[in-house]
Amino acid sequence: MKKLGTLYFFCGKMGAGKSTKSKQLAIDKHAVLLSEDEWLSSLYPNQIASFEDYIKFSTQLKPLVKKHVQNILSVGTDVVMDFPANTQKLRKWFLDMALEVNANHQLIFLNLNNEQCLRQIAQRRKEQPERAAFDTEEVFNHITKFFEAPEASEGLNILEFSGKD
User: Fold this and answer.
1) Which of 45, 64, 82, 104 has a CA positioned 20 to 30 A from the CA of residue 95?
2) Closest CA to 86 of 15, 33, 165
3) C-alpha to C-alpha distances, 59 to 17, 42, 53, nearest whole angstrom
4) CA Rg, the chain, in Å?
5) pLDDT tens, 127-152?
6) What confidence tens digit (pLDDT) does each residue in 93-121 have?
7) Whole-number Å distance between alpha carbons of 79 and 29
């Protein structure tokens, strides 16, 4: 039986370090890294001005991404997705993507508190000034309202890191 790839994906509040960790994991696992931010900015340049725009374009992207990821997993290559898995509905999308092709999966939960995330967002504003418009406490508070921590009942393989790890 041929070996399938493993799907790695991340859950964590805005500023928890999902993008940073996903880049490192892709290197460590010799995996294909897919970044939602890169796909969205390439396909919809200058069209995302609000959280609602992001939701709309992210939703449009998902069917294409799903098929692409399943094809990569099916040939035995691991995939690291820098796409947020921050609600039960989103996590089900990732889980189904893996299960439909009988691939393994790993959810990495970056369990940082609001203060830790806001500190990292402030640092990111300095390092990436182009993100300053979105990297604000107001945006963080808005987005965090939708955040749902993963639960064992979702049937996921969860690896959890706190801010102390």
Assistant:
1) 45
2) 15
3) 23, 15, 10
4) 16
5) 888 777 778 899 899 899 999 999 99
6) 999 999 999 999 999 999 999 999 999 99
7) 9
